[in-house]
Amino acid sequence: MMEKCLIYHRQFYSEMLAGEKPSKSSHELAVFLYPDVCEKDSIFSIEMKKSNQVYNFHGDSVSVDSHGTLLDHHSSTTEGQNEMLLLQMNMIHLLSSKLYSEIPREDVRETYLKTITILLEDMEIIPKLALLFGCQDKLLSHMAMKCIASLILVQILFTKLPIDSWMNSCLDILSKEPGSQQSAHWVQTVTVIVKDILKGKSQDKTGTLQKLLIPMDTALHNLYLFTFSSCRGGSQTSGDFTQPDDESVATISQLAVVHLLEVMVGIRNHLELNLSCLKTLYLHTPLVLDFVTSSAQYFIKKKLILLLKMCMLGQASDDACNPCHASPQQDSHLHGDLLEVSFTLLQAVSLGWLKRIPVNPRPCLFGGSEILDVENNTPGPDMVMLRTVSLILIKAMEINLKNTMDAVKDKGCLKNELQSCLSQLMLFLKMHLQGCAQFQQLPHPCAWVSFVFVEQDDDLVEVASALLTIYTHCRGLVSPLVLTTLQTQTLSVYYSPH
Asked: What sign for the dihedral angle of Cα 450, 456, 461, 463?
């Protein structure tokens, strides 16, 4: 039976690549695409239809059980069963993505859509796929997540089928089991759906995102707060780890939330949506800053620092938004929220936050904690961390300065505040670069900018522009009689753009 399935899959795959109408009917395709997953307790409270069906394939009769699974009494469990599951899920994902990322011919589109409707409505495939969440085979679990995400997106965009069952199950898990491995899988599913919406060809991205995110707004907001409150003061608020795998589960959950936050920041920077789940990073910055100095894994804290950089620069992650289809609209409250982030960051710096930021003493690549198979005398610390911290602090100073300039009463102490922040930044860099002879022997104090940012041209431009703005504004804070003194002071605290 498996050999016959492979023949049909190969034929259908070739037809999809060629953009041709499938030679099989929608019912036949649905049967062969439906994954044979072993039944166990499901978190879905859905009553499955109890009717057996029989479909004919060129003279061969194949029965289908109450869940749509192919029944072949001559077959037995083999090592190839997982490969067949992966093939089926990959084909479903590809079939779904053809609908929302491409524009197939009308007859092809009709067949694809009818096939997916049968899988969703008649065979109730999503509860079946959800059973693979957390299974030992990580690839199966990952493909099940991607497959569910693509099916949900097709439901939202092209069918009138409700997503209430999936939504209720998702909200139930996120509310009752935040921080669990099961919760992480659901968060990853939501992340993939949102990414596909942003990268797809839909013209109404805002409306589509509203359909998905409005019901989840409160649950996602509470999940963020739980995640960033779970590692504060160097310990877990929910109790110490009791099993060896607990820390791994917490890390997986935290990483899933950070990835979702990256997408949410991209939405905030490109689309006009006013939802609590999109504002969490902006309105709860103290939690994020505390998390960075907590006992969480270094690479997660590093990703959060990079996420703060995305906020400050108004960027979106490379895989979260298609620049060709990005909307120029932004949330009208974004400027005020950015100002709040900047003020909170500068306040944290004044309270010694920079002294508590962990920086790996060795270079890091691809977000890891260290480089393998490199001699111990590798020079320099994690420059990505140093560079990003420096950039977000300089941008925070620039944003705060532009706003404060409008308040005459604040001008007297503004210069001292800026100098204090930059002095602490220099102490932070010197602390982590004390073993670097090149940094210690810079020809001029202002040369720290080119030293720290030499490997990242776009960041170098951003920080140079911000420093120029700071310098220009500071020149206007005082009268020409004390300008010479001010220039000397600004040189001594490293923000002259000369």
From this structure: negative
Decide: helix, strand or coil at residue 207.
helix
- Which three-class secondary structure state does DSSP give residue 405? coil
For the cut 70, the answer to whether the pLDDT of residue 428 exceeds it is yes
- Beta pairing class for 70-71 and 60-64: antiparallel
More confident residue, 301 or 100: 301
pLDDT digit string (tens) for 66-111?
A: 344 443 433 344 457 888 899 999 999 999 998 888 878 889 999 9
Q: Which of 274, 242, 280, 245 has the alpha carbon at shortest distance from 261?
A: 280
Gap between the Cα atoms of 295 and 349, Å rounded: 19
Which positions ≥6 away from 68 have C-beta within 8 Å? 30, 31, 34, 119, 122, 123, 124, 125
232 sits in which H/E element: strand 231-232
Q: What is the pTM of this model?
A: 0.83
Cα–Cα distance between 405 and 476 in angstroms, integer? Answer: 10
Question: Interhelix angle for 181-199 vs 164-176, to 10°?
Answer: 130
Helix (H) or strand (E) holding 40: none
pLDDT of residue 305: 95
Give the count of beta carbons closer than 10 Å to the beta carbon of residue 140. Answer: 20
Question: Which of 157, 262, 165, 150 is CA-nearest to residue 207?
Answer: 157
472: Cα within 13 Å, side-chain hemisphere: 8
Structure tokens at 329: 């609209």
By C-alpha distance, which of 158, 161, 267, 144 is closest to 209? 267
Q: Decide which of 36 and 204 is more confident.
A: 204
Chain mean position to CA 234: 24
Determine how many CB atoms are found less than 10 A away from the CB of residue 207. 10
Q: What is the pLDDT of residues 313-336, one digit of tens each?
A: 988 766 555 544 445 556 678 888
* DSSP secondary structure letter of residue 47: P
